[in-house]
Amino acid sequence: MSKDVGLWIDHRKAVIVRVTDNGEDTSLISSDMEKHVRYSGTAQQDSAEDQRDTRFIGHLNKYYDQVISCIRDAESILILGPGEAKLELEKRLEKESLTERIVGIESVDKMTDRQIAARVRSHFIERGLKGSTI
Predict the structure, then answer these.
(1) Domains of the chain from N-terminus onward
(2) Which of 4, 9, 53, 104 meets the CB 3.0–4.6 Å disulfide criterion with 76?
């Protein structure tokens, strides 16, 4: 059974779409994180900012671990997203020796869950047609 997975990811949430021989399934992982804001200021403020950055990175690592646990068994992975999160996830997948499963990384803006599912579905349908020997 083929397991193709596409996901839209930013620092706040990941929408994961699994496309199998039996249909598709969509799930959501929320990072429960506020937007990360960088401040400029004095040394005392820098220390507080460093602490915030450390917490932010720790939180992101847990979030990416959750995402990876949901897509680890995928044969093909399509990564979509508007910002840095998709590239950060790619680096994490590289550390997990899963980069050979990545079939594409695309920059896209905000999308509804239905738009994400349609984009993932069409990507894997097109890919299947290109790979067929009809």
Answers:
(1) 3-131 (3.30.420.60)
(2) 4
